[in-house]
Amino acid sequence: MQVQIFTKVDASFECIGLNGNTISQSSIITMPNSWHKCYINLHRKDITDIKIGSESIKHCINAGNNTANGYEIWLHGDPAEYFARISKCIAQEDLLRFKNLHDKYLITESWNEQVDGDFIPPSVKRFFAMGDGPHWYHKADYTGLPYVEYEGPEIDLSIDLDEDLTFVDKKFYGQGQCKSLKPQPVLPTIRLEQIKNKKLRNTMQQFGFSDILQMQYVELQPNSVLPIHMDDFTYEDGKNIIDGPTQLYCVLSGDSKDIKFKFKNVGLIDVSKPLFINNRRFVHSLVYTGKISRGVLLAYGIRQSK
């Protein structure tokens, strides 16, 4: 499909597909029927219209972002796919005039990612290779967010977990070993003061927890995979506590650069710092290629955001 960009003055255009392939053309771009991130060396005020085929994208032109180098906007060669995604993700009122969508939305970009290794099942390779393009998640819809970042002070990762995580989970889903605070994430929660190890208790308090529903330490060996899945709490009585980006994900050992953690409709998740993930509503998979075992602390419960 032809994509035409109309500007007040001459401009340069570059569009990058989900594979990283670049289209650099004039203001008329031949775009395949897939998502492309387009860079225009002008700001929004200098762009008058964008057409996909014969159709103007109208107010959707405000779905982009001004940067120091110009305007960035995601486009799709199929206008039906484009309008459907924008309508699903962005409130119409937020598009009627140009504004910084980052103020209201968590904006994610899912590219086609390559994971290599004979130990990786074909389904996981395909899962990573199928990018979903852009998604906008309204920050007011907390339970619909894929993740929120931890914004508190730095965490001391040298934590003794053996005193509290005494249950060995032999049914862990994937190539990993797991020890937990209790067999299942069931009510009642455990008050923070009931955590035996003082440093662990203080760490959970630093993360904002007042009550713990479950806490786990999961270890993966080098060249390990967590298959495509979504954590299922359908029949757990504590599922309301878990809903939303509520599970602490904190890497304790192993290089986070060797962890590829992908959420469907979100893309790769940056786990270099602690964050809270929505593993109940988003299908995900993980590939770990580090040389030493990877250990991660997981916890969910009642907490104040920090």
Descriptive terms for the model:
306 residues; mainly beta; 8-stranded antiparallel β-sheet; 23 strands; 4 helices; elongated; 5-stranded antiparallel β-sheet; single chain
Give a short summary of the structure.
The chain has 306 residues and is mostly beta strands. The chain has helices spanning 79-89, 122-129, 198-206, 239-242; strands spanning 2-7, 13-17, 22-23, 28-30, 35-40, 47-52, 55-56, 65-67, 70-76, 105-110, 133-138, 147-149, 167-169, 176-180, 190-191, 209-220, 224-229, 247-253, 259-263, 267-268, 275-277, 284-288, 294-303.
Protein model, in words:
It is a single chain. By secondary structure, the chain is mostly beta strands. The mean pLDDT is 94. The chain is 10% helix and 38% strand. Strands 12, 13, 14, 15, 16, 18, 21 and 23 form an eight-stranded antiparallel β-sheet that branches. A five-stranded antiparallel β-sheet has the order 3-2-5-9-8. A four-stranded antiparallel β-sheet has the order 4-1-6-7, with no helix packed on it.
